[in-house]
């Protein structure tokens, strides 16, 4: 249970990452991924990377610059333009559903205009899920200049597209539905220079 805890990625650039364990019974037709990050990086960095043997960017949350988030499904991406952060925690949720191909993006509890992405696609279940690096091969192939440096917290992955109420609940750290990956019951392995610390402030 990582309640009120964070992963601190201490170095920049870095070879460190956190490997997450999720039990996926079947491929994903819908999903939502949420996390909170705190960094002063202005270079590109990867937040959440979900790779299968067939597709290294099966699910990817990537920040190429301070005013953009890229959300990948099955190797294709849409870009969400955001105001430059004011040196504070940023909470993001990205949701996707195969039937409509609609990609949702929420920043700090607010929805951005929805976009179209990979309609009819299915996300594979046999995955390597990594925080802090972008996988170019299954479980590896990192470019250290895309590594994350800073603090990560409140990581979740659901096999549904969350309702607007639940998206806001995730931002406010309220009670959430059972998840494939849940911060309060996370199975993880730290690889390299990452430290678990208490949150500095709420």
Topology at a glance:
Layout: E1 5-9, E2 17-21, E3 30-38, E4 45-52, E5 59-65, E6 68-73, E7 76-81, E8 90-97, E9 102-107, E10 110-111, E11 115-116, E12 127-131, E13 150-158, H1 164-171, E14 187-191, E15 194-198
Antiparallel strand pairs: 1-13, 1-15, 2-12, 2-14, 3-8, 3-13, 4-5, 4-12, 5-6, 6-7, 8-9, 9-10, 9-11
What does this structure look like?
Helix content is 4%, strand content 44%. The protein has one helix and 15 strands, in the order βββββββββββββαββ. It has one helix at residues 164-171; strands spanning 5-9, 17-21, 30-38, 45-52, 59-65, 68-73, 76-81, 90-97, 102-107, 110-111, 115-116, 127-131, 150-158, 187-191, 194-198. The longest helix is centred in the C-terminal third of the chain and has 8 residues, at 164-171. It is globular, with a radius of gyration of 15 Å. InterPro entries: ConA-like_dom_sf, Pentraxin_domain, PTX_dom. Homopentamer. Pentaxin (or pentraxin) have a discoid arrangement of 5 non-covalently bound subunits. Its cofactor is Ca(2+).
């Amino acid at each position: 249970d990582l309640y009120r805890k964070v992963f601190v990625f201490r170095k920049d650039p870095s070879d460190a990452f956190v490997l997450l364990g999720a039990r996926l019974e079947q491929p994903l037709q819908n999903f939502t991924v949420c996390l909170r990050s705190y960094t002063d990086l202005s270079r590109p960095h990867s937040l959440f990377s979900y790779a299968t043997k067939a597709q290294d960017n099966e699910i990817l949350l990537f920040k190429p610059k301070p005013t953009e988030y890229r959300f990948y499904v099955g190797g294709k991406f849409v870009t969400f333009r955001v105001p430059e952060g004011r040196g504070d925690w940023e909470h993001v949720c990205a949701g996707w559903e195969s039937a409509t191909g609609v990609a949702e993006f929420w920043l700090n509890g607010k929805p951005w205009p929805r976009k179209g992405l990979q309609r009819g696609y299915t996300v594979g279940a046999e995955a390597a899920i990594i925080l802090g690096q972008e996988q170019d091969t299954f479980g590896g192939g990192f470019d250290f200049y895309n590594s994350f440096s800073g603090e990560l917290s409140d990581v979740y992955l659901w096999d549904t597209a969350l309702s607007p109420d639940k998206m806001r609940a995730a931002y406010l750290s309220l009670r959430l539905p059972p998840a494939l990956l849940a911060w309060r019951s996370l199975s993880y392995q730290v690889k390299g220079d990452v430290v678990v610390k208490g949150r500095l402030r709420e």
